[in-house]
Specification:
With about 160 residues, the chain is an alpha+beta fold. It has 2 domains: about 45 residues, no CATH class; about 110 residues, 3-Layer(aba) Sandwich (Trna Endonuclease, Chain: A, domain 1), CATH 3.40.1350. The chain has 5 helices and 6 strands; from the N terminus they run ααααβββαβββ. The protein is globular.
């Protein structure tokens, strides 16, 4: 059997074939295969973590959703996928409304023309109105004990897309 601590010090994370040759035993190869599984799981977990844009969008959607509820909207669906439209489907007094939420760090974001057209096309299919809800985030520069960043949120409401 190999000494795992010694093996760990000599074996690169990505699994170097020259290390196999220098150790040359099946125990080392199976341990390397096992370590590769750990590395693969690590990289898959990293990919599964939301990106900064996804986290910002989720925060922006939450802000807009909460404001809509205060205005009397019933939230029908929420979507925080960057590739799908709309982010929020809501209704008030029997009228269906699609909300496209865009978030930027800095000044309020603009609605790209192609996003506006895509939302309007979907809204027509469902007899809905398409609205744009821009949200701007400004870092407070402080982090809590868990390393989460604080933000000043600039949300001034929605407008026609």
């Amino acid at each position: 059997m190999c000494d795992f601590a010694l093996f760990q010090d000599r074996q690169p994370l990505h699994g170097d074939s020259t290390t196999f040759a220098s150790f040359g035993s099946l125990d080392h190869i199976s341990l390397t295969t096992s370590r590769m599984g750990i590395v693969d799981r690590f990289f898959k977990a990293q990919q599964a973590r939301p990106s900064l844009q996804e986290k910002d969008l989720a925060l922006g959607v939450r802000v807009v959703r909460d404001a809509l509820v205060k205005e009397g909207y019933t939230i029908e669906a929420v979507n925080t996928d960057l590739e799908k439209l709309p982010q929020i489907v809501a209704s008030i007094q029997g009228r269906l409304t699609f909300f496209v939420v865009r978030v930027a760090r800095g000044p309020l974001p603009e609605l790209p023309t192609e996003t506006k057209r895509a939302c309007e096309a979907q809204a027509v299919k469902f007899g809905a109105t398409c609205m744009f809800a821009p949200v701007a985030l400004m870092s407070t520069g402080e982090r809590n004990a868990d390393g989460e960043e604080g933000f000043f949120v600039n949300y001034r409401g929605y407008r026609n897309a």
